Amino acid sequence: MLLEELKKIDQSYLMQTYQRMDVAFERGEGSILYDLQGRDYIDFSSGIGVNSVGYGSERLANAILSQAQKMIHSSNLYYIRNQAFLAKRMVELCGENMNVFFANSGAEANEGMIKLARKYGEINFANKRYKIITLRSSFHGRTIATLKATGQESFHRYFAPFPDGFVIAEDLKDIYQKIDGETCAVMIELIQGEGGVHSLNQKEVQDLSLFLQENQILLLVDEVQSGIYRTGEFLASQVYKIKPDAVSLAKGLGGGVPIGAVMSRHKEVFSFGDHGSTFGGNFLSTRASLEVLDILEEEYKSGALQKKIALFDEELNALKLSSKIFGKKVGLGLMVGLELRDLQTQQNFIAQALKAGVIVLRSGKNIVRFLPPLTIKQDEIKQGFCRLRGVAQMLEREK
Ligand SMILES: *Cc1c(COP(=O)(O)O)cnc(C)c1O
């Protein structure tokens, strides 16, 4: 099929909610994608942090195939072995006494986390605490509640009225000003994925965590993007050395199969009927996640992941130094970015990178974001950065 034909069908039959780039991918191998014409691209985006084990993984494909042949779905009216084992595995990887609820996306995981905080606030305090504080440049999802939790005003156009009880703080320090007797939780991303790959200050987060604990206010960490080894540990919370009351996960967890999860230390809050999901935690998605965790745990334990992070950082520094178009480096692990002069340079860089055969992402107003597969190989990293240096030189000459 030709791209032009595909574009016509897309535009006729799909709600036009995505401003797509001029390419359609057909298959992938490792961290390389091939488009309809067979052109290759080094993928530094992994489908926005989703394809954590890259493309064409035989292990993941075989796990999904053999599960699909046995059974894809039963419903949560019955016990589901893969779901129970995946929860056990995730809790062990956190090293905390938690339990898990499975959903199908990041927004849904956050919805579950918000409901958990609301019920916690209702059953533990005479005055029913219900307010949840979130940060200005956060992103928490596209449902009505998670949109309201998202602090960026541009997301709030058209969809009012929103549910009550979400309070926006300008930054970490401002959270203390916004807390009142009705606050049940604070919800943050440790590294703001959409809001500029901005890592919060570790000491400030640790202080906040202690303060909240002393005041019986929950710390909810949205790890939908930062979780599942993205920052070098299973959770970014482990890098930050904090123990959140609840964590939400999704993107990298299923290696491309939709799955989301909420994990919480407050095992007592939800009881029968409080929450549910038709598809959440079904045989297929939990089997895929078990395989993804197997693959990633091996990468982690063998030290391969740390080596990739170090090489990626080295190459990112070299790219930054190679051209005046770049400002500071941001992020953590394999969730990193480079600052560019402005929105226009950001758009140009991403478009030209695609033409040169590298997929990168935008974030915030002027950041180019890198979220490569966690299984990316050394030569793929080097090849990608080689192409990007060419792009940077070209853009610098144009200026
Ligand atoms: C992507 C993302 C979400 C939303 O996830 P969906 O699966 O698109 O609903 C929520 N929070 C963060 C931090 C994200 O990066």
Provide a descriptive summary of the structure in words.
- The protein is an alpha/beta fold and 399 residues long.
- It has helices at 3-13, 46-49, 58-70, 81-94, 106-124, 144-149, 172-178, 202-214, 236-239, 283-301, 304-322, 343-355, 378-398; strands spanning 25-29, 32-35, 40-43, 99-103, 131-135, 166-169, 183-188, 191-192, 198-199, 218-222, 246-249, 260-264, 326-332, 335-340, 358-359, 361-363, 367-370.
- The longest helix is centred in the C-terminal third of the chain and has 21 residues, at 378-398.
- The chain has 13 helices and 17 strands.
- The protein starts with a helix and ends with a helix.
- It is 41% helix and 18% strand.
- It is globular.
- The strands form 4 sheets. A 7-stranded mixed β-sheet has the order 4-12-11-10-7-5-6, with helices on both faces. Strands 1-2-3-15 form a 4-stranded mixed β-sheet. Strands 13-14-17-16 form a 4-stranded antiparallel β-sheet.
- A hairpin with a 2-residue loop joins strand 1 and strand 2 (32-35).
- Bound molecules: pyridoxal-5'-phosphate.
Indicate the proportion of strand residues: 15-25%
Average pLDDT number = 97
Spatial strand arrangement across the major sheet: 4-12-11-10-7-5-6
SSE sequence, one letter per element: HEEEHHHEHEHEHEEEHEHEEHHEEHEEEH
The total strand number stands at 17
Helix content: 40-55%
Small-molecule binders: pyridoxal-5'-phosphate
Which class of secondary structure composition applies to the elements?
alpha/beta
Question: What is the general shape?
Answer: globular
Unreliable residue stretches:
none
Distance between the termini: 38 Å
The largest sheet is:
7 strands, mixed
Counted by DSSP, the helix tally is 13
Rg from Cα: 21 Å
